[in-house]
Amino acid sequence: MVLPPLAGLDRATAEAKLKDLGLRSTAATVTAGRLPALQVLATDPAAGTEVPAGATVVLRVSDGRAPVPAVAGLTRADAEKLLRDLHFTKVTVFSEENGTKPVNQALRTDPAAGTVVALDAPVTLWFATKPVIR
Fold it and tell me: What is the pTM of this model?
């Protein structure tokens, strides 16, 4: 039989489909980002491959984590959009007075770029504002 596409399904649904086809499954979690936890990213063998009855299919399943992207130098709007497009769900934005960077330029995130966190973990975006003259 030909292995059907399972990417995008949740793990339980994919396992049930495989069982209905007379196939076995095992899962391997992957930090891939952009996908909720337990969503199937890919299979091994790949969809469309001919597999014998009773074969074991490895489900590559998202662990719901991703590295925080580097946003320094982007505009505030572009940095916020990037974080949301990557499915970070708890983004907070703060301004910081800065006399050397353009207004509304993203400065950094907390956690720092490259840190792997859950997609529902808090991520703080800092952007530049004009210094207040005192």
Answer: 0.72
Task: Give strand pairing partners of 94.
Answer: 126
**Rounded-to-integer distance, Cα 1 and Cα 53, Å:** 7
* Cβ count near 65 (within 10 Å): 18
Q: Hey, what are 56's tokens?
A: 């074991």
Condensed to tens digits (0 to 9), the pLDDT of residues 34-74 reads 778 889 999 999 999 999 999 999 999 999 899 999 999 99
Q: Is residue 28 classed as helix, strand or coil in its secondary structure?
A: strand
Is the CB of residue 3 less than 8 Å from the CB of residue 49? yes
Cα–Cα nearest to 97, from 131, 57, 72:
131
